[in-house]
Amino acid sequence: MEKNTDTRLAIMNTTYQLIAEHGIQKASFALIAKEVGISKPSIYYYFDSKNDMIYQLFEQFCSEISFQHFFNAEHFTQEQFSTQLIEVGFQMIQEQANDPYFGNVMKEFLSLAARDDSYKGRFIELQQDYLKGFEQLLLKAADWSLIPLYSLTEKAHILALVIDNIGNFMMLDDTVDYRNIWKTAVQLVFLEDGLHG
Amino acid sequence: MEKNTDTRLAIMNTTYQLIAEHGIQKASFALIAKEVGISKPSIYYYFDSKNDMIYQLFEQFCSEISFQHFFNAEHFTQEQFSTQLIEVGFQMIQEQANDPYFGNVMKEFLSLAARDDSYKGRFIELQQDYLKGFEQLLLKAADWSLIPLYSLTEKAHILALVIDNIGNFMMLDDTVDYRNIWKTAVQLVFLEDGLHG
DNA sequence: GTCTATATCTTGATAGAC
DNA sequence: GTCTATCAAGATATAGAC
């Protein structure tokens, strides 16, 4: 039985928007059904329960914001390393700014993760991907003698913290030049006369 | 009529914990009353509605995490500036780590703020306090020629993003040395041969 | 696949006695 | 101030016809 029909996609897309607008709890099957234009019990043909449906949405959400999705180590060159790192950060900031639902949905999933270990575990994976991912990236830069090994891990984590939190700050205050913050963060990490043991 | 009784405090403290454990929606008046050891309608003697009560808790929560609460510009000296900044950050990290409910409650309020402008407005105030606060702090350091004016605003914002997000990351992964990340971030900002125009 | 009808539970809130 | 009793609304989920 093939269940990846248009109806199923319509339910998931509509739910994504309704979660952003009203939160998970208030995005009821009644509301979703009304918005999609079907009856409430029809949703149960595609999903076992509301929990099941929310979790499938969550899995899809996570796969689209992985470290690898944005930062591919193979695309970095010795000559343009920091410039490329700045550019990829810009793309990430832009992509999240272009999806008006992204921030709200993220906040909903984060509050879910605070109380549910399934969600929490997935977020831990995601976070460690970013922490380790930036570390691998800077190690590559160190191989090319672009930065020293000293404090390399801490620098990687600073970049992870900054790029991650820019999205949160953007939601509340859009008068700040976040691209410039990211650019400065990368430049500080790649300073020639940087921190030394 | 004096309503700041022990019962009122018990209700608020219990609610704070229950929100951390079950989220705002599932922290029902029935559950709160049971936990406090009173009947459900008794809560209405102290609060007009659930919204009223949650918002009062939110106001108290916000006042306890203001920039001024941690970073008082008058306590910084020319000789020990960066060391003091590192130390105050350590205290902030420690204080949040000591309250096991803090992170979860914060996530709940953030998801509320995504859909309610009253909450959102208060969070914007808080965020701008931190952004402006760090900027004022670095301006003071610049007056003392401890850092150049170039990229000063961006550096201040980097510090705000890092210290704020450390709390979020700590919740998911406690194997990372977050104190060292903060220390490195401050050191990068205060590098003698830093960024220049 | 999609529907109508309905069961069951939980919620925030009120009435009114003491 | 605190209680018992109760209401109306909204939630998830199921039964069963088409």
From TrEMBL, chains A, B:
PROSITE patterns: HTH_TETR_2. Transmembrane segments: none annotated. It holds the Pfam family TetR_N. Keywords: DNA-binding. The keyword Ubl conjugation does not apply. Gene3D superfamilies: Tetracycline Repressor, domain 2 (1.10.357.10). Residues 28-47 bind DNA. Residues 5-65 form the HTH tetR-type domain. This is TetR/AcrR family transcriptional regulator. It comes from Viridibacillus soli.
